[in-house]
Design brief:
alpha+beta; Anthranilate synthase; 8 helices; globular; binds ligand ISJ; isomerase; Chorismate_C; IsoChor_synthase; isochorismate synthase activity; ADC_synthase
Length: about 350
């Protein structure tokens, strides 16, 4: 059984075992810099004050081809509850809009999320849920992390998902980021679907939500990268369930010693999952939602040469150690002109990634 997997359109990584476990990023970064281990894999939490789930695996395999598995059957699941209830999420969005509309408040964007809790009729094997997500995604995106390194509370639990959002990839001296922010649901009717995409591309509110992310990422990258190419207009990205505004940012690392993990830590949490300004948004989220765990964190790998790839930890779920309980979370960026009911609908559309992989 892999303890880590990251599937992408052009390659996939599987890692096995846990040679050494790290619950702090500094400890993991140190072994990469002193080259005592060749690979680090795992997950960063949303809140960097919480434990990380990083390991030096005993085996790391990277194949330069797309993984296109068949979809295995899964046990059935039933919805057991919501955290918070949908009407409480709407209330929180309303409260956020009031703060965001106050000219004296520093906060201009905050990402609010909610969780659906499901119970399976029999244990779900982590790799089976991963395989279903990868099989269903047009980009073969998928992630799986054994979270045991984060401490007793996480022993045997897994984060499993299909994130479309590249936080950062470093290969050689080249750095690529592809932030997403600004969303619309896909529609089954092709004409309605095209319209949804076109309206998103033309939406001033979504362009604004997106610009907060690109600006923050460009500012975080500037000290670390030269030749930063930051397009001024976002493009459209699609997943099976969502349209997003996306911007591909490319740069060159100034210092060869900068690793993909260093870059991920410098960028995370972006305003795509937290908000603007970061500290105010984080405070708002912790006060309203509590601990997000590894939802809206980052998942990836890094080698001792500094190469690696980190995805934003979204469109994912935490699977309990007994394989029976699934907590799937999704959020959306709120700005002063957001509509609470549309924001609730947006989280429902984003939750479709996990719910449809569970056959719902
Ligand atoms: C926070 C999530 O998604 C993020 C928020 C988006 C938005 O607010 O439009 C879009 C893509 C992601 O960066 C999520 O899927 O849970």
């Amino acid at each position: 059984m892999p303890t880590f997997a990251l599937s992408r359109p052009t390659d996939h990584v599987f890692a096995y075992g846990a040679g050494v476990r790290f619950n702090t990023i500094d400890a993991a970064a140190a072994v990469l810099h002193n080259r005592s281990h060749e690979y680090i894999v795992g997950a960063l939490p949303f809140d960097l004050d919480s434990p990380a789930a990083l390991t030096a695996p005993t085996r790391f395999v990277r194949r330069p081809v797309r993984w296109q598995p068949d979809s295995p059957p899964l046990p059935t699941t039933a919805i057991k509850g919501f955290d918070p209830q949908p009407d409480e999420h709407v209330r929180r969005v309303d409260a956020a809009i009031r703060v965001l509309s106050d000219p004296r408040a520093a906060l201009v964007k905050v990402v609010l999320a909610r969780t659906v809790i499901l119970r399976a009729s029999a244990a779900i094997a982590p790799v089976d849920l991963l395989t279903r997500l990868v099989a269903a995604d047009q980009g073969s995106n998928g992630l799986l992390v054994d979270l045991s390194s984060a401490g007793p509370h996480y022993t045997g639990t897994h984060l499993i998902g299909s994130s479309p959002e590249l936080l950062v990839r470093k290969s050689g001296s080249t750095v690529v980021c592809h932030p997403l922010a600004g969303s619309a649901p896909r529609a089954s009717d092709p004409a309605a679907d095209r319209t949804n995409g076109q309206m998103l591309a033309a939406s001033a509110k979504d362009q604004r939500e997106h610009a907060f992310v690109v600006d923050a990422m460009a500012a975080a990258l500037a000290p670390l990268c030269s030749d930063l190419d930051v397009p001024t207009t976002p493009g459209l990205t699609q997943t099976p369930n969502m349209w997003h505004l996306g911007t591909r940012i490319v740069g060159t690392v100034r210092e060869p010693a900068t690793t993909a993990l260093d870059l991920a830590v410098a960028l995370h949490p972006t305003p795509a999952v937290c908000g603007t300004p970061t500290a105010d948004a984080r405070e708002f989220i912790l006060a309203n939602e509590g601990d997000r765990g590894f939802y809206a964190g980052a998942v990836g790998w890094c080698d001792s040469a500094g190469d690696g790839e980190w995805m934003v930890g979204i469109r994912c779920a935490e699977l309990s150690a007994d394989g029976l309980t699934i907590r799937a979370s999704a959020g959306g960026g709120i700005v002063s002109d957001s509509d609470p009911q549309l924001e609730l609908a947006e989280t429902s559309a984003k939750l479709r990634t996990i719910l449809s992989a569970l056959g719902r």
